[in-house]
Amino acid sequence: MAYLGTPTATAEIIRKYNFCFQKKYGQNFLIDANILQKIVASAEITREDCVIEIGPGIGSLTQYLAESAGSVIAVEIDKKLIPILEETLGDYDNVTIINEDILKVDIRKLSEERNGGRPVKVVANLPYYITTPIIMGLFESHAPLQSMTVMVQKEVADRMQVGPGTKDYGALSLAVQYYAEPEIAMNVPPACFMPRPGVGSAVIRLTGRREKPVEVRDERLLFSVIRAAFNQRRKTLANALANAPVLAGDGGRHVTVAREKVYEALDQMQLSRTIRGEALTLDQFARLSGLL
Ligand code: SAM
């Protein structure tokens, strides 16, 4: 099978199947063999690995993954791409295609069923419209993820690495800090995709941390507090948190926090009652969620 990740091969498949790119699914296919190889090299894929690919498209990256990995599970939402993938990946017996929305897939169960609960690697050229929910969902799934090597919008890659006080600082930066070590593998210009996206891209590798940088009793509460703080980032932290439903405990109960309780916690931490969420470090969010 010839490689699909070139302008001519991709155009040929598109024509053959009369395929229309769906903007709503963030379909920008890679047409640069060099970039495709570099993604697989950055993910350090070997025959020992089980890879989950999100959004295989016509299978351009999947081919390279199948050639290096032990097995590949490719999850694609667009049912029009399934017959195409069945043809383009027909020669590989280590690829499983699943026609599902990744946001609805139980990744932990999938890795349990397909890889006996051993660590899996995620590799993807992500659909940009849902980058944050996909990455947060993967972190919070508590699936055994060894690493994620993903193409994202350049701006989002930058957002993953910033600290308090910058406009890009948010729930994603804090989640990355808590769960992973980020490393930008390369920047990728729009010309490497068909059709070309209106933004620059970057491949970022997130390697799971062995030890968390802060200790918390309830991770779910921590990220629920962080989300509530940034959902209304113009408000003070006390206003954003007061009466916002936050999740707590293993059963995921919704509880509300009284403003007085937030004030008390801020006083104890010697922080101003009018501080905004964007000024707090991960450490401070951890302490705050503990006090709440
Ligand atoms: N991997 C291919 C490549 O690099 O050429 C395609 C990447 S394209 C940027 C994103 C892919 O994700 C598309 O194939 C799109 O249909 C798929 N996709 C979009 N939303 C999805 C979702 N919620 N679940 C699974 N796949 C999705």
Explain what this protein looks like in three dimensions:
The protein is α/β, with parallel strands linked by helices and 292 residues long. The protein contains twelve helices and eleven strands. The protein has helices spanning 7-16, 33-42, 60-68, 82-88, 107-115, 131-141, 154-159, 171-179, 219-231, 237-241, 259-268, 282-291; strands at residues 29-30, 50-54, 71-76, 95-99, 120-125, 145-153, 180-188, 193-194, 201-208, 245-248, 253-256. It has a seven-stranded mixed sheet with strand order 4-3-2-5-6-9-7, sandwiched between helices. Helix 4 (82-88) links the parallel strand 3 and strand 4 (95-99). It is elongated. The N and C termini lie far apart (58 Å). The mean pLDDT is 94. Bound molecules: S-adenosylmethionine. The site of S-adenosylmethionine has 23 residues, from strand 1, helix 3 and strand 3. S-adenosylmethionine (SAM) binds next to strand 1, helix 3 and strand 3.
